[in-house]
Design goal:
InterPro entries: Asparaginase_II. This protein is 35% helix and 19% strand. The chain is α+β, with helices and mostly antiparallel strands and 335 residues long.
Amino acid sequence: MSTSPAAPLAEVVRGDLVESVHTGHLVALDASGRVVLAAGDPAVTFWPRSSLKPVQALAMVRAGLDVPDRLLALACASHAGDAVHRDGVHELLGLAGLDETALRNTPALPLDPAVALEWELAGHGPTRLTQNCSGKHAAMLVTCRVNGWDLASYLDPDHPLQRAVAATVRELTAPDASGGADEEPGAAHVTVDGCGAPLFSTSVAGLARAFARLGGSAQHDPLSAEARVARAMSQHPHMVSGTGRDATVLMQAVDGLIAKDGADGVLALAASDGRALAFKVADGAKRPVHAVVDAALRSLGVVAADAGPLLPPFPVEGGGASVGEVRAVVGGADV
């Protein structure tokens, strides 16, 4: 992320004093693509981390990936690693005549602590299968098999698959003709994500545009690849994340919503009419994410102003009791 000045997104209140402030960059778009809420620098270039997975999945669908919706949702996932996720990865690999030895993602324990404990008690350690990105990697291998592309080098940034992903990132995150010409193009930078796959840069505004284009796609062309990805996510939220995890909870709460979080304080979502949100917490903290999402959804009108929180508030405790709160602020005002 560049050094563009960040703005307050949330403050931690203990007792009657603000104890700390989390800053970042945020943008929310209405159904026409107009900015209705912003903080910091929406044009800041950053790493979107796993929030980019739906765009990567779109590139794969366009390249010929044709799998059931629940498996396409798994291709978009940072999954918990429970049995349904592991079985789905095996099923994906089986479509290409492969097993988990073909995966090149970084071995890890299941992402969900309870699932990880169960896995370890069964005598297992970190594996490529249980790492949270294994669905994406399995889908990448299936896409390579469909196209006759080399399997062993599928993580090389110059591989045809990764070139297709980069092109899709550039396309979906690009500003429209109404403005944003000074914004750095998507996929201008490349590095390696935690799972070992190439990771392409974008801007916070670009990520919001990408989700808007995915989320609202069914209204324009319900048979499009974009609509397929959005439908898979919204109809199979558990496959995208897992029980009680942020993206799953949000999609279960709002019909047609697509949502994907990313490491280091990133989250993006879109409603079925194209209203969209993306933000990056500058210090990478998870603590302010729930409050910011909740406030932004109300500002967008996706959730009623008087509705209860969709995600549980982050606790501020003293002596085992609640003594404060994490509350969202944008532009210096409570929202």
